[in-house]
Each structure stands twice: as structure tokens, then as C-alpha cells.
Specification:
This protein has 17 helices and ten strands. The chain has 395 residues and is mostly helical. It folds into three domains: 203 residues, Dimethylsulfoxide Reductase, domain 2 (3-Layer(aba) Sandwich), CATH 3.40.228; 73 residues, no CATH class; 61 residues, no CATH class. Helix 8 crosses helix 9 and helix 15 crosses helix 16. It is globular.
């Protein structure tokens, strides 16, 4: 953060001058490490273990902000009887489809919610499949929606107890063995961070691509979110989980957006689905019953009206049919894997070198060797074109 986000880091330094503690967890020693109260080098790729260890510490040492957890999270809500966790289900959660290599989240729903599958046997989008987006909380919200909950957090199938069993494996000894962080140092970090909790204190987690650019990056950030919710550090001043993003690259790709699976405003691209390609089905899949995404229809309609103007009317679904459909994995590595499998015949490369420019350059080199043709415009040629065009402009 000190190196790549110096303007934001000045506030971290001011907080330190007022008594805040800075903990830097990074295999490398950087300028951030030099200004931190605690620097924790650990083995790359063990982020979930380290965060899981702090989750386990917060639970076992009674460091959670209990009033917050009971009233503002889904921790008290009881899960269905057919939900099985990995401890009793041979290492996987219930709903695993070995043939399809993916989970059916039906059994993960709350007790009292009933089946979420539609008439065609399909499970709806993640907004309605369980918690999240401001709905399905514990406490009063759970009772209002007729979900069964235990405000004492003692029921063996409440979310809190399931989570407690899951994270029990992440002991300080386990962290030392697998993450390479000495037990004494880990305990110092866990105690320091967990003490910034409760009615009068908060703590923030700042992360960058060291979190996101793992194959399990989503799960790393999810673990950080679990920790912050247990400590009551979400939605409160000085708390949160802050992504330090590159505004001209990562942030820009989601805001413009250039990613294949989202529209501006983080609206999902419509996927081609047999018998469900109309606007009504799209809205049903992505609209939640409460929270910001309860306005999903307004967001998407506004975007379509902005693009198609007066031609977008209610009668023609605001020209929704004009949007292209996603038919598969069109992500960066998705098309390199297709290239490796011989599904891509040719490639144009402009202003980059995939042979050295990604996290698996060996794969990309072998994939390019499978191509029938390759078109590349060298950077030198680009510069020559710009110089020539400039010279031909009138004075």
C-alpha cells in the first residue's frame, strides 16, 4: 500500500500517529513493512490458512462482537437438516456433483425456506439461493422471513456452529507448520487484530492483487469477510475490507467494462440459457428480495435506455434482445485453454507479449504453438506508424 497507493497510505500513517497498529502480512519486505508495527512474512498461497487461524482465535478466545454477530449477520440462522459439512461428508459439502464438478446449493438453504428450485428444477441465481445482499439476516430479519434461528448461537446447525467446526482445524500450531508463521508471532497478530473490535473499536483489512490473483482468490476474500463480520468491522467507521486496485487496469476493466461477463455497474451479462433468454427471466435470476439488488430491474432498464434511447420501450423489453449472450468461459485463461485444446485457429496480438506476460507463460507458449496462424503488431511498428501520421499532419 505504501508503494502503490501512497496518497491513501498517508491516512494510515496518520492513524498510526494516533495509536493505531499496522500489521503487514506479505512474503516480501516492502516500504509498507518498514512502516508497520508488525511484519509477518508467510508462505505464498497460505492466505486462507492465516485468516482462518485468526477466525478460530476470535471464536475460541471469545473475541467476537456478539451483539453485532447476533443482530447483523446470519450466524443465528439454522440450516436445513440435509446440509452436510465436510467433517461428516468425506471432505466435501453436501450437493457436490462429481460428474459436473460443481455444487448444487439447494441443501445449503435455511431451515424453513423450502425449495428454491423453479418448475424446471433449476436453482435460481445466488441472490435468492441464500443469504447476502442485505437480506436473510439473523435476529428479527430471520424471524420476519420465517427462518428458524437460535439467538444463543448454540444450535448445532446454526450458521455460527457450522462455521465454528469448519475453522477449528486452523490452530496456531497448524498455521506455524503450513504457513511458516511462528506460533508466538501469529498469536501476537491475532490478539492485536481481534482487540480492535467491539462497540468502541474497529479494524480494516486492506488487500490488493495478492488476494485476488489466486485461483482461490474469492475464497480468500470471503474468509476475510467472515473474520470482519465476527469482529463487527463491516459497515462501521474505520472498518471494512478495502481493495487496493489499479484504477487504469483492474478497476477500469470492471467500470467500463471490458470483462466478458459483466455490463457497466457490475450488472451480469445475459448467458444463453435454453428456454430462458427473455428479459423477464434475466430479471428473475438476478433480482433479490431486499437490499441494493432489489432495484436490479431499474438499474438494467436505465442502462438499456441509455444505450438504445427512444427505441427501448417496455413493449420490446427495452431492446434486451439486442444484447449478445455469453455461451461459455470467455475469460483470459478460458480462451488460452481452448487454444491449447485446438479450438482456436488464429490469434492477433497487439501491444503485449503473452509468452512472458501472464501467470502461466508456459501454458500460453504451448497454446500458441497449436495455432494455425499468428498475427502480431510489434511495438516498434506502432511507434513508426504514430510518427508517420504525425509528420503527415498539416502545420
Amino acid at each position: 500500500m505504501a508503494e502503490n497507493h501512497p496518497v491513501g497510505y498517508q491516512w494510515v500513517m496518520e492513524a498510526r500517529e494516533r495509536g493505531a497498529k499496522i500489521i503487514h502480512v506479505d512474503p516480501r519486505y516492502t516500504r509498507t513493512s518498514a512502516t508497520a508495527d508488525i511484519w509477518v512474512p508467510f508462505r505464498a498461497g497460505t492466505d486462507i490458512l492465516f485468516l482462518g487461524g485468526i477466525v478460530n482465535y476470535a471464536i475460541t478466545h471469545n473475541k467476537i462482537f456478539r451483539d453485532y454477530v447476533v443482530n447483523y449477520t446470519n450466524a443465528p440462522v439454522i440450516l436445513r437438516e440435509d446440509m452436510l459439512d465436510p467433517e461428516v461428508n468425506e471432505g466435501v459439502w453436501s450437493g457436490w456433483d462429481e460428474a459436473a464438478k460443481k455444487y448444487d446449493p439447494e441443501t445449503w438453504l435455511y431451515e424453513g425456506s423450502g425449495s428454491k428450485k423453479d418448475a424446471g428444477g433449476q436453482t435460481p441465481g445466488h441472490q435468492d439461493a441464500g443469504g447476502g445482499h442485505g437480506k436473510d439476516r439473523g435476529g428479527e430479519a430471520a424471524n420476519e422471513q420465517q427462518y428458524h434461528s437460535d439467538l444463543t448461537l448454540e444450535h448445532p446447525r446454526c450458521v455460527y456452529q457450522v462455521m465454528k467446526r469448519h475453522f477449528a482445524r486452523y490452530t496456531p500450531e497448524f498455521i506455524e507448520e503450513h504457513a511458516g508463521v511462528p506460533k508466538e508471532q501469529f498469536l501476537k497478530v491475532a490478539e492485536t487484530f481481534c482487540n480492535a473490535s467491539g462497540p468502541n473499536k474497529t479494524a480494516a483489512i486492506c488487500y490488493a492483487v495478492g488476494f485476488t490473483q489466486h485461483s482461490k482468490g474469492v475464497q480468500i476474500i470471503r474468509t476475510a469477510a467472515i473474520l470482519q463480520l465476527l469482529l463487527g468491522n463491516i459497515g462501521r467507521p474505520g472498518g471494512g475490507i478495502l481493495a487496493l486496485r489499479g484504477h487504469a487496469s483492474i478497476q477500469g476493466s470492471t467500470d467500463i467494462p471490458t470483462l466478458y461477463d459483466i455490463l457497466p455497474g457490475y450488472l451480469p451479462m445475459p448467458f444463453y440459457e435454453q428456454g430462458a433468454n427473455d428479459y423477464k427471466s434475466y430479471l428473475k435470476k438476478h433480482t433479490s428480495s431486499a437490499g441494493v439488488w432489489s432495484n436490479f430491474g431499474k438499474f438494467s432498464t436505465s442502462l438499456l435506455k441509455a444505450w438504445y434511447g427512444d427505441a427501448a420501450t417496455k413493449e420490446n423489453d427495452y431492446c434486451f434482445d439486442l444484447l449478445p449472450r455469453v455461451t461459455g468461459d470467455h475469460s483470459h485463461f478460458g480462451y488460452w485453454l481452448d487454444m491449447q485444446d485446438g479450438k482456436v485457429e488464429g490469434l492477433f496480438i497487439m501491444g503485449q507479449n503473452p509468452a512472458v506476460g501472464a501467470s502461466n507463460s508456459g501454458l500460453q507458449r504451448t497454446a500458441m504453438s497449436k495455432l494455425k496462424w499468428l498475427g502480431r503488431r510489434p511495438r516498434g511498428e506502432q511507434r513508426q506508424v504514430k510518427v508517420r501520421e504525425k509528420a503527415e499532419q498539416p502545420a
